[in-house]
Amino acid sequence: MSELLIETEDGDLDSAPMNLQMGPSHPAMHGTIKMRLKLDGEIVQRSDIEVGYLHRGFEKSCESVTWTQVLPYTDRLNYVSPLCNNVGYCMAVEKLIGVTATERCQYIRTIMAETSRIGDHLTCVGASAMELGAFTAFLYAIEAREELWRLTEAVTGARLTHSYCRIGGLKDDLPLDFEASYRVVEKKVRSLIYDIRALLDTNRIFLDRMKDIGCISAERALSLGFTGPCLRSTGHDYDVRKYAPYMIYDRLDFEVPVGVKGDNYDRYLVRLEEVDQSLRMIDQCFKQIPAGPINVDDGRLVLPAKDEVYHSIEGTIAHFKLIMDGIKVPPGEVYSYTEAGNGELGFYLISTGEGRPYKCRVRPPCWALMQGVAEMVEGYQIADIVPTFGSINMIGGECDR
Amino acid sequence: MSQYVVGRIQEKFGAAVLSTHASQGDDTVVIERGVLLDLLFFLRDDAELAFNLPIDLTVVDWYRLRELRFEVVYHLLSTSKRHRIRIKVPLDEDDLKLDSSFPVWPGLDWFEREAWDLYGVTFEGHPNHKRILMWEGFEGHPLRKDYPINQRQPMTALLGEKA
Questions:
Q1: pLDDT digits over B107-130, tens only?
Q2: Pairwise CA distance, residues A28 & A38, whole Å
C-alpha cells in the first residue's frame, strides 16, 4: 500500500504513516484483544495482533484435577456454545477409554450441541450487526438466543456454564415435556431469524460494510489453519460433521452451506444458513431418538444411583473412589475432534493411567482464525476492522484459554 | 485409513523414522528432528498425500519419565484425501531447538510462538519469535511439569507491594 503515500515536497500536510493501538479495552474488541496498526490515512497498512489477555492456564489447571473435573473448565472455553465443548471433551476421553456412549445419549448430545451452535451463530451475527449500528437485529438475535438458553437451562440446570455431559453419559435425561417446549421455542426462533434476515440481507448500509470486505481465498485460509464457518465462507466445504461423521451425524440429512468470496457477507450468510441446517438436524433427531439408558453400564465410569450411595456400602465406596481418585483412564494418547461453533475443536489427551490427565491440550479453532485476522484487515479501512473482527467470532475464553 | 501415509513416509525417510504406532486409531510417526522440514514439505507437496490443513502443534513434557524430555507433536489433515497424521519429534532438554515450519504453513506461526512461550522450545527461523500468551519478561515456561501450579508472577506489583 506504500504507493498511496503522498509526497510532501510541495509543502502539503504531513501524511506519514501513523501507529495506532486499538484495544485491549475497546468496545469492538470484544474479549480483550489488542491490535497494533500502522495506518496510511484510514487504510490499514500493517497490523499485529496481541492476544493472551484472558489466559487462565486451562491446560495447567486440567493437569491437576480429575478427568471429570475438567468439564467445568471446558464450559469456559467457548462460553457462547459450552455444550459443543462438553461433547467434544467427553468424546475424547471416551475414545481414549474405548467406550461409546449409548444411542439415546448420542442423540441428546447432538440435539444440545446443535442448540448451542444456533445460539453461538446468532450471537455472532447479532453482535456484528450491532457494531454496524443495526441494534434491532442484535436485539432480535439475543431474544432468540435467550429463548434457546432458557430451554437449555431447563435441561441442564444452568443458563451458561452447563457442564451437562459426563464421561460415559450425561448428567440427566431430557425433561418429559422437552419436545413440546422446544417446538414453541423453535417457532419463535424461526420467526426472529426471518425478521433479522429481512432487516439485514439486502440492507444497503449493511451490504456496503460487509460485501467485499475482509476477503480471504480458500487456499490461503487452509494454509492458515482455518476451519468452521470462516473456512466454509471461502467455498471450501470442510465440515467435521460431513468429513468424519461422529456420534449420529451420518444418520442425519443436512447440507453444508458454503460461500464464494470469503468476505464478511459470506460469513454472515453461511452462519445463518447453518442455523437453518441445525434446526433441520434437531427435527430429525426428535424423529429418530430411541428410548433407553443415557449412561453406559460401567461402574468404573458412571456414578452409582443416589439410592445406592446412601443405602449400600458398595455404592458409598464406588462413589467415593470415583469422586476422590477420579476415573482411571488407560495409558495412551488420543486426538479427538468435533465441529464446534467456530470450527474444528480438537482435544489431544495423554493419560499415564492416573485419575488425572497428564496432558489436556485443546486445539481452539479461534486461535488459527485470529492469526488470519491480521492479514484480513490489511488494505482495508480502519472502520472495516470492526465487521471483519466481528464476523470471525473470536471468543476470548477459547482463544486465550 | 492413513496407514498409507505411514507407509509412504517410511519408504521415503526410512532411516529417520524412529517408530510408528496407531494408538486409538490415530496413526503416528516419530521422526528425527533433522528431517522435519523435508518431511512437512513432502507431506504438503506430494499429490497423493496432499496435506493442506495444519491442525495443531503442541509439546509434551515427559519430565523424569523419558530420556528425551520434550516431544513436539504435529497434527495434520488433508481435506482432499481425508486422511490425518500425527508427527512427533523428540527433543533433548539441553538442545531444545527445532526448525520453524512457518515456510511450509504460515498457520503454524502462533502455534510455534505458543510452544515457545509455554514450553520453551526454540523454533529456528521463525519470523516473530516472541511470547504470545504470557507477557515479555515472564520468567520460565509455565506448562513445564517442573513449573509449580501455584507459582504467582503478577505483571504489576500487588497492592501494598513495592514495584
A1: 898 999 999 999 989 998 888 888
A2: 18
HEC per residue, A163-209: CCEECCEECCCCCCCHHHHHHHHHHHHHHHHHHHHHHHCCCHHHHHH
Range of the domain at A134: 58-399
Do residues B55 and A225 touch, judged by C-beta distance below 8 A?
yes
> Which residues does chain B have within 8 Å of residue A226's beta carbon, measured at their own beta carbons?
107
- Partner residue opposite B55 with nearest CB, options A64, A225, A350: A225
pTM confidence score: 0.88
> 10 Å Cβ neighbour count for A28?
17
Q: Which domains are assigned to chain B?
A: 2-159 (3.30.460.80)
Q: Closest Cα of chain B to A236: distance in Å?
A: 9
DSSP for residue B33:
G
- Say which CATH number the domain at A393 has: 1.10.645.10
Q: Please name every residue paired with B31 in a beta bridge, in sequence order, or none if there are none.
A: B17
Retrieve residue A211's grid coordinates. 460485501
Residue corresponding to grid cell 450411595 = A309
The 8 Å CB, 24+ separation contacts for B15-24 are: B18/B90, B23/A332, B23/A333, B23/A334, B24/A95, B24/A96, B24/A98, B24/A332, B24/A333, B24/A334
pLDDT, tens digit, for every residue of A86-138?
999 999 999 999 899 999 999 999 999 999 999 999 999 998 888 888 889 99
User: Which chain B residues are Cβ-neighbours of A57 within 8 angstroms?
Assistant: 142, 149
- For residue range A39-98, what is the model confidence (pLDDT) as tens digits? 888 888 889 898 888 888 899 999 989 999 999 999 888 888 899 999 999 999 999 998
Counting the structural domains of chain A, the total is 2
